[in-house]
Design a protein that fits this description.
By secondary structure, the protein is α/β, with parallel strands linked by helices. The strands form three sheets. It has a three-stranded parallel beta sheet with strand order 1-4-5, with helices on both faces. A two-stranded antiparallel sheet has the order 2-3. A hairpin with a 2-residue loop joins strand 2 and strand 3. Helix 6 packs across helix 7.
């Protein structure tokens, strides 16, 4: 985790015990984020959250979990006090993005909005032409690429160039709590069916962007 965060410009402090974690929390600067395994060697993320509260700290805690289902994830976030979770299987894709959602640097030199940055290359012109072709249709599409390459921005650009801009755009993380669980196609009403149906109804006529779709469990169907 530390190596991944360093690669993206963060300065993580790694510790391997609860006492060491408490010592470091006391020294954290404003805007910091805590990433903790749900089960620690000598404690738990929940214990760390409760200790924070008792000491007057309020740093957001992101819990690393192993393939938990919907109810268990809700327990981590509500009962355990984590602001968000990252599935260990999708850590490479989710960790940096989730940390960025909660980290608040004291000094921000500049901040880019969530738009596609033009490049001067033949490859980028191909991407622009693909965006135009997809945006002129009602086709579903999958955008492939490494983490940080701009897939989300491309999806947004397709939406902006389409006829759907008067309807909502919603982004949904496939590895997050709402889409984790078991789906029984036979019943049409299972653990996650109502949630999925609700998301599609929300953006009816608009666009639903499902991020990290490879994290969906195989029985999950739309």
């Amino acid at each position: 985790m530390s190596g991944l965060l360093v690669k993206h410009g963060y300065e993580p402090i790694a510790v391997d015990s609860m006492e060491a974690a408490k010592d470091e929390v006391e020294k954290l600067p404003p805007g910091a984020v805590i990433v903790a395994d749900i089960t620690l060697r000598d404690g738990s993320a929940k214990e760390l959250v409760n200790w924070q509260k008792s000491e007057g700290f309020s740093f957001p805690v992101i819990a690393i979990v192993n393939n938990l289902n919907g109810p268990d994830l809700l327990e981590v976030m509500k009962g355990g006090g984590a602001v968000d979770v990252v599935q260990r299987a999708g850590m490479d894709k989710q960790l940096v993005e989730t940390v960025a959602r909660y980290a608040k640097p004291e000094h921000i030199v500049f901040q880019l909005d969530n738009t596609l940055i033009p490049r001067r290359s033949d490859r980028f012109r191909e991407i622009e032409r693909s965006i135009e072709r997809v945006a002129s249709t009602n086709a579903n599409c999958i955008i492939f690429g490494e983490s940080g390459m701009g897939k989300e921005q491309i999806a947004r650009q397709i939406y902006l160039q389409s006829s759907r801009t008067q309807k909502p755009l919603k982004e949904l993380e496939a590895g997050s709590a709402p889409l984790v669980g078991r789906h029984d196609p036979e019943s049409d009403r299972s653990e996650i069916f109502n949630r999925i149906e609700g998301y599609f109804n929300e953006v009816n006529g608009g666009t639903l962007v499902i991020k990290n779709i490879q994290l969906l469990t195989s029985p999950t169907t739309f």
